[in-house]
């Protein structure tokens, strides 16, 4: 959660596991969109001497659909290569790393960035260096200087970064996966009421952990299809975004003298669009299959959106708290609100001044109406908080997607499609109880937005004498 260990097979392959995807009109550059895909989740910052990195044998991609058919019209592809400086040292670095070409840095990564449009590949940059992992203050005295060196403005208009960042997702994993406990409501839980007298304090389970991010800031003219108008109500203003990781189909293990080799066509092993889709909507038996399919196949999973398991569990786990949701579940009415939010986009007329409908094709994508300008005061509950620039209109780093998703599943969004339905009082308050303030590393105000990765020396925080 959002997608850190969402399927059995990809949880065994963290280098190719997409954990979070963000897409938003850039607050620091309103004529562009920022796209960030995180991989290699749950990194312990002190995990040396073999610190975390991208996979040289993985193809990482961010896809943009600008005509609503569920197929990518624009793709940004990142491919990495690792080089060792000192073959006789076991260390990641043999002294302070003060520049991206430091001789003290023993294991460096570079990447090629390719833009794919209309089936044609355009290499935008080759051998761009990533910054190192944040080992500690002695190894890297000025980490942010290296991040600035590793952030590139390309001649084609894109800004790009690839490297380690602090995990900005906030979620109480320990409680949620302990039979769906929400600590602010734990005393109402069917089993928790035997243990708890009052509400509990939430815990951000992924705080002080790192991820590896691929990030690109793209002029809107390069992601939207051509149109005479880009108003809020114009279909050309809305794009769909998802990320994938792929591996070649055959891996040959080397013998005593030969290195391992990967051959054959590329096959998709990981996918992420909306947060929590595979994690919470798709049943366990189909999660690995979902990761291999394109968004155009998501009609196969529409029935799990129409009648989500979590919606049925809430009244069971919290007896008497969700009576209206319970009645809705028993009526077997398909959840048209969730189908719109997750698979088609929200049509005009349901929310004043808003739509991010992409069409009839059911596809799990982050849908972003690029005509809606960034909010000067973002509301963490996005659309549910009256902020049209927030999730599920794309996703910003500060959006509380877990609370938004829980409230939608609990029935808050049903009145969009059924005016007679009255959400339960608890539906609008259900939350794990966390916010962006529970992320120790502050978010940045500009690209690449995610905070400075936690360093190994100070994580966990060193005791003060």
From TrEMBL:
InterPro entries, A to Z: DUF4331
Domain of life of the native organism: Bacteria
Protein name in UniProt: DUF4331 domain-containing protein
């Amino acid at each position: 959660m959002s997608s850190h260990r969402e399927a059995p097979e990809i949880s065994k392959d963290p280098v190719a596991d997409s954990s979070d995807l963000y897409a938003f009109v850039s607050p620091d550059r309103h004529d562009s969109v920022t796209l960030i895909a995180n991989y290699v989740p749950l990194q312990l910052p002190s995990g040396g001497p073999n610190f975390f990195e991208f996979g040289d044998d993985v193809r990482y991609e961010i896809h943009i659909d600008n005509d609503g058919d569920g197929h990518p019209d624009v793709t940004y592809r990142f491919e990495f290569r690792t080089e060792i400086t000192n073959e006789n040292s076991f260390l990641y670095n043999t002294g302070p790393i003060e520049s991206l070409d430091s001789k003290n840095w023993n294991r460096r990564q570079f990447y090629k960035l390719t833009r794919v449009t209309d089936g044609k590949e355009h290499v935008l940059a080759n051998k761009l260096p990533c910054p190192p992992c944040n080992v500690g203050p002695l190894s890297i005295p000025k980490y942010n200087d290296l991040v600035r060196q590793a952030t590139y403005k390309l001649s084609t208009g894109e800004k790009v970064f690839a490297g380690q960042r602090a995990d900005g997702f906030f979620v109480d994993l320990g409680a949620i996966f302990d039979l769906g406990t929400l600590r602010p409501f734990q005393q109402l839980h069917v089993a928790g009421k035997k243990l708890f007298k009052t509400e509990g304090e939430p815990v951000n389970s992924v705080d002080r952990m790192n991820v590896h991010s691929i990030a690109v800031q793209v002029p809107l003219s390069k992601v939207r299809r051509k149109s005479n108008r880009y108003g809020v109500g114009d279909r050309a203003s809305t794009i769909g975004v998802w990320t994938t990781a792929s591996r070649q189909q055959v891996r040959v293990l080397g013998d005593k003298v030969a290195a391992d080799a990967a051959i054959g066509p590329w096959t998709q092993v990981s996918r992420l669009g909306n947060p929590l889709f595979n994690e919470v909507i798709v049943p366990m038996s189909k999660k690995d299959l979902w990761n291999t399919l394109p968004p155009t196949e998501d009609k196969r999973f529409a029935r799990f959106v129409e009648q989500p398991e979590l919606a049925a569990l809430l009244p069971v786990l919290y007896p008497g708290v969700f009576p209206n949701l319970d009645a809705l579940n028993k009526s077997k009415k398909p959840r048209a609100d969730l189908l719109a939010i997750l698979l088609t986009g929200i049509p005009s007329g349901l929310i004043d001044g808003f739509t991010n409908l992409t069409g009839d094709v059911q596809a799990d994508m982050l849908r972003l109406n690029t005509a809606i300008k960034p909010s000067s005061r973002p509301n963490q509950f996005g659309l549910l908080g009256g902020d049209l620039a927030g999730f599920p209109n794309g996703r910003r780093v500060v959006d509380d997607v877990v609370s938004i998703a829980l409230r939608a599943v609990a029935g808050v969004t049903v009145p969009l499609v059924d005016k007679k339905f009255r959400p339960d009082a608890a539906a609008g308050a259900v939350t794990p109880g966390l916010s962006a303030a529970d992320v120790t590393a502050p978010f940045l105000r500009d690209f690449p937005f995610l905070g400075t990765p936690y360093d190994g020396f100070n994580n966990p925080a060193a005791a003060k004498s």
